[in-house]
Specification:
This protein is an alpha+beta fold. It contains 6 helices and 16 strands. The longest helix is centred in the middle third of the chain and has 18 residues. It is globular.
């Protein structure tokens, strides 16, 4: 009998590059719930919850924040109402936490306080700043690869980072790159993770470093906003520059500039802590149709070619 590869197996078999595979998002809302009124975490659960039911008004309230991404999180061993807000569009990203008495408290979140260098407030009370959180996609009802690859990584990461900072999360995008996770407060995306990567992810992030060969990109590059394809090109360039310049500390490079130099072509610049500028060119083309999800019709995917690495002295 012919065996069909899963979307994640196919991506690994194709040796698909994972850098430059992240959609932009400035603000992340992470809400603890098992969403029992919808029968658990179904496909598109956040979108479904926004349309009707208990969460409709809460999600619509949060959706007023521009460039925000709303996610549900859970841990099998807990059943509380934790909420986190990650503000990633600033030089020093922040992660805030509150334990709600009721989900209706989300309506008391002062949206004007969700801004760079401002602490969000719920019911007039400032949220607490926390140092780290790892959200591993395990939403198997969205795509089976998310649970098949995600749950072992979630369990391994709990051992190395601690139960209190590791959560399961609904679909974050890119299930063909499972296992996937987002590391906060920076909003850093990883892909094609296996359980043995858990220790290096946790150890490096605690020390302020990222694991570049598993790096997909990040949700935001400061206060500037870009269309999806430009954002992905910036991520691809960043990963290339980091690897070439051996700049693995998260704070060692800051986005500096992007310039369109042709159709689906960009010149991207980053600057290090000494003021040295690094530039790379990115050319993006669409692949032949390939599996983007299990049981879905194959479709073209972006392929980034990064070259012309240059430096300019400070």
């Amino acid at each position: 009998m012919e065996q069909t590869l899963t979307c994640a197996d196919a991506a690994r078999d194709l040796n698909e590059s994972i850098a430059g595979s992240v959609k932009p998002a400035d603000i992340f809302f992470l809400i603890e719930t098992n969403a029992t009124e919808y029968g658990g975490w179904g496909k598109g659960i956040v979108k479904t919850a926004k349309q009707s039911g208990e969460f409709e008004h809460y999600i619509k309230h949060l959706s007023q924040v521009p460039n925000a991404k709303i996610l549900f999180i859970r841990r099998p061993q807990t059943n509380a109402k934790n909420v986190y807000i990650a503000v990633t569009n600033q030089a020093d990203p922040k992660l805030y936490h509150a334990l709600l008495d009721d989900y209706a408290d989300l309506l008391q979140l002062d949206l004007s306080t969700i801004a760079p260098d401002t602490t969000p407030q719920i019911n007039g009370q400032a949220m607490t700043t926390v140092d780290e959180l790892y959200a591993v996609c395990t939403n198997g009802k969205h795509d089976p690869c998310c649970s098949t690859f995600g749950i072992p990584v979630y369990n391994a990461l709990r051992e190395h980072a601690g139960d209190e900072v590791v959560w399961q999360v609904t679909h974050i995008g890119g299930h063909r790159l499972a296992a996937t996770l987002i590391a906060f407060p920076q909003g850093i995306y990883y892909g094609q993770l296996d359980p043995f990567n858990a220790e290096e992810i946790a150890t490096n992030h605690k020390a302020g470093y990222l694991v570049n060969y598993k790096y997909r990109g990040r949700g935001s590059y400061g206060t500037q906003s870009f269309d999806e394809m430009t954002h992905k090109a910036i991520s691809a360039a960043e990963s290339h520059i980091r690897e070439t310049a051996k700049k693995y500390a998260i704070a060692s490079l800051t986005f500096d500039s992007v310039e369109s130099i042709g159709e689906m072509q960009w010149r991207v610049g980053f600057v290090d802590t000494n003021g040295q500028t690094y530039q790379a060119t990115v050319e993006t083309r669409m692949s032949e149709p390939r599996p983007s999800s299990c049981n879905a019709v194959p479709k073209p995917m972006p392929i980034h070619t990064v070259s012309t690495y240059e430096t300019a002295n400070a």
